[in-house]
């Protein structure tokens, strides 16, 4: 019988068990709050072109904004943000009317000039061109430490991952801009609302001493501005009193990094923190035993996956990767680790894709006998497969890894956990990378936001040398450039067959869910996303 490991948390001290004094303090009529999170950022910066992460998504909408926003208090559907309206000119062109009177954190007014600069070579694209959208830009994921005005090499790589065919953004007057693509793209509006397309102040960027200085304190239009960032310690945001959407409800927001889940729970019960993020289901009872606290949250548009470096010796034969997929009892993970608070997804896709959602698809079935047969056919001799693992960057990450390693062991796979301190070590091409955890999130409602962004020609797994498949690259071209819905759906279906069955790039585990502890008296609504919304109207 497989024994699933369970988390055991430190008991509360007598002082912590006493009725807590909730910590949000009044400041000039508005509160200041402290939020405990597992991780602040993965890149040492707050810039969306380097901080392409789940934890970055949580904080970024507070200080930066896109032209088209997401309805964070609804179903994440597109809503006007810095643009008041948008129009399709043709298959390659979208025109947007800018909101007037919007002030950046430095007091400057937002104009078309700032939007044009945001998507310019100097800020985003470097020397890349849209003609090379199907050619991979190789990149090594490293933390930026040098203070120079030049773009770090990963910035243009990420930019072309997000905007493979963008030719330029041009001004059509002071308050109107036009996005022009080299190829047809039915998802341009989605790209405009995605992580990485936030608008920045041109003057602030050009006047910053270095790219890193700006990236640690980006100047945007959000309801809060960056006061201080101590990487791996705390991020302090303060009210942008000239926010176009009205006076922000909070005077100051302090995010503190508290890696241990037990400490986050103890802290919110003791009144040290106003919110504690990244809770696990077996912590709910401990939080809710205090009648003044509650847990909010649920399933979000993000899927936990395990990724393969298909070029490593033990994983070159796709049958070994297939065997690993069939050895995982996903429903057991959902039922016992997640206590039924999430679901097993139908592959790497989301229902909000609408007509592009493949409802008849499914994750690989749990079949240990099939795993053993595949390993026998592949001639697998027990070679060690490293599993590069972070300490609970994802909720239940270590527990989940231990469970899967045991499941793999039961079919004859020799998977060895290697603990890593950060993502640079996970992505490091030196040595044998084997497998690692990841997640796949939908920034907008179309498969283009996931598969090409992860495993296409400019996908992160391809840019870092983990994966590559010529047919997948071709299918990405169809998905990104075709205007024929039937052709796009067919391409997506074939892509999932390759990525999840024939030449596996990853294996889905469960749909992600995020849970936060807070006071019941706190009038704040959680989003169906990693993003936390503290705009006017979402606090009382």
TrEMBL record:
Entry keyword annotation includes Manganese: no
Residue span(s) of domain Solute-binding protein family: 78-450
Signal peptide start and end residues: 1-27
Locations listed in the record: Periplasm
Keywords recorded for this protein, A-Z: Signal
InterPro entries found in the cross-reference section: Peptide/Ni-bd, SBP_5, SBP_5_CS, SBP_5_dom, TAT_signal
Listed GO CC annotations: ATP-binding cassette (ABC) transporter complex; outer membrane-bounded periplasmic space
GO molecular function: peptide transmembrane transporter activity
Pfam families per the UniProt record, alphabetical: SBP_bac_5 (PF00496)
Transmembrane domains' residue ranges: none
GO BP: peptide transport
Family indicated by similarity: Belongs to the bacterial solute-binding protein 5 family.
The protein's name in its UniProt record: ABC transporter substrate-binding protein
Lineage: Bacteria, Pseudomonadati, Pseudomonadota, Alphaproteobacteria, Rhodobacterales
